[in-house]
Every structure is written in C-alpha cells, then in structure tokens.
Amino acid sequence: MSADPGADPEAVRGWLTARVASYVARPPEEIDPLVPIARYGMDSVYSLGLCGDIEAEYGLEVEPTLTWEHPTVAAIAGHLLVRLSASR
Predict the structure, then answer these.
(1) pLDDT by residue (tens digit) across 19-46?
(2) Statement: the pTM of the whole predicted model exceeds 0.85
(3) CB contact at 8 A, 9 and 51
(4) Across 55-68, average pLDDT
(5) Handedness of CA 14, 12, 78, 45 (dihedral sign)
(6) Alpha-carbon gap, residue 44 to 32, rounded angstroms
(7) In sequence order, which residues have a C-beta less than 8 Å from that of residue 21 and are 6 or more positions away?
C-alpha cells in the first residue's frame, strides 16, 4: 500500500482520473469525473484492472462490480474515501 489512508479527496480523484485516462488512452483533463467511465471506453477488462490498481494503491479489497455500482470517477472516489476513513 503506497497511499496514506487519510488521503484527501482531490488526491484520490486525481489518482483515479489518471488511471482511467491511462486505460482509455486519453489525457486526464479529458476525463469528466461526473461522466460514466464506460462512455470513455472502460470495458470490463479495464475495470478489473482498475480494481487491482485500487487494491495495490490503497490496500482496499474491492469487488469486481465496483465500476458498475459506482460508474463515475466521482462516485468511485466517494466510495473509496468512505472506506479509507473507516479503515483509520
């Protein structure tokens, strides 16, 4: 785990935005945190990869349905922040 469990919301959103941008081969500034990531081309394989990235970065075990239940960067970040604050 490389991230501090007390990570701030902007850092989490920024990290997620960069990871999604990497998967869909777009600049991070083109990723709107309120647009479903599937619209950018995030498919189930990429979503599983993102789950693995989250587990490695934040030390949280996440379900493979994460991006289905939380379809935007903002929603995923909110979910992670709640989980991170609970793990303190």
Answers:
(1) 999 999 999 999 999 999 999 999 999 9
(2) yes
(3) no
(4) 95
(5) positive
(6) 19
(7) 27, 28, 30, 31
